[in-house]
Specification:
The chain has about 220 residues and is α/β, with parallel strands linked by helices. It contains seven helices and eight strands, in the order E-E-E-H-E-H-H-H-E-E-H-H-H-E-E. The termini are close together.
C-alpha cells in the first residue's frame, strides 16, 4: 500500500561547523525546514514532526575493506555516478575531510533509537536510509546531470516535479529536499537500491519514474 501523504524528511550532512540541514515533505510539498549543529536536536525535530522515513546524505556503514563500499561501486558501474569512497572508521578519525561522515554516524546513532535502518525490503513503519542527492536528481531526470552545475540542475529537477523551492535558500536545503524525495519514493514502493546489508544500501527513486512526484496525485 502506498502512503503518499506521510511526512518524510531528508537530511544533508556537513561537518561539525556546518551541521545538518533538513527538509520535510508532506503530500509532495515542503512542509518545514530545519538546520542544527547537533544530531540529537535534528532527531528530536524529526520525532516532533511525526515523520515516517528519514533519508540521509551520509554513509550508513563504514568500509569493511578500506576501499569503496559495494553500494558506491555499483552506483558507479551501473549508473555512472561517482560518490566519495567511504573509508574504514579508523581512517576517518585521522583525516579532517571525513568529519562530515563521522557527523553522519552520530546522526544515524540517534535516529536508530526510533528509526530502524532500511533493509531494502520492508518499507512499513519508521525507518532511516542512506541516499545521495546527485543520484536522486539523475534518477528523476533519467540522465546523468553534470555535478558542476548542481545548484541550477537540482533546483530545476525539484521544480519539474512540482516541489516549491522558495524555502530552499541554499544548496544544503536543496540537497535535503532531494533526500526527502528519495524517502518519498520508498514510501510509495518506487525505488532502487545499490549495495548490500553489510556494506550499507544507497537508495534512489526508480530511474525515470516521475509520476508520483507531481504533487497533484489523488489520495
Amino acid at each position: 500500500m502506498q502512503r503518499l501523504k506521510d511526512i518524510v524528511v531528508g537530511i544533508d550532512v556537513g561537518g561539525p561547523k556546518k551541521g545538518f540541514h533538513a527538509v520535510a515533505l508532506f503530500g509532495g510539498q515542503v512542509l518545514a525546514r530545519k538546520s542544527a549543529l547537533n544530531a540529537t536536536e535534528m532527531t528530536e525535530w524529526c520525532l516532533l514532526l511525526g515523520c515516517t522515513i528519514v533519508a540521509v546524505d551520509a554513509p550508513c556503514r563504514w568500509s569493511l575493506t578500506g576501499h569503496a563500499r559495494p553500494a558506491e561501486r555499483k552506483l558507479a558501474h551501473s549508473r555512472k555516478i561517482s560518490t566519495f569512497a567511504t573509508p574504514k572508521r579508523e581512517k576517518a578519525e585521522s583525516n579532517p575531510f571525513y568529519q562530515w561522515m563521522l557527523n553522519g554516524e552520530n546522526l544515524y546513532g540517534q535516529l536508530q533509537k526510533t528509526f530502524r535502518l532500511f533493509d531494502g525490503r520492508d518499507n512499513k513503519g519508521k525507518f532511516c536510509l542512506e541516499t545521495f542527492p546527485q543520484a536522486v536528481a539523475c534518477a528523476l531526470s533519467g540522465r546523468i546531470l553534470p555535478a558542476r552545475k548542481k545548484c541550477v540542475n537540482r533546483r530545476k529537477v525539484l521544480l519539474e516535479h512540482g516541489i516549491d523551492i522558495s524555502l530552499l535558500s541554499n544548496i544544503d536545503y536543496v540537497d535535503a529536499a532531494l533526500c526527502a524525495v528519495a524517502a518519498r519514493s520508498v514510501s510509495a514502493g518506487k525505488f532502487e537500491t545499490y549495495g548490500d546489508k553489510d556494506g550499507g544500501l544507497i537508495v534512489t527513486p526508480m530511474w525515470r519514474d516521475i509520476a508520483i512526484y507531481s504533487g497533484n496525485e489523488a489520495g
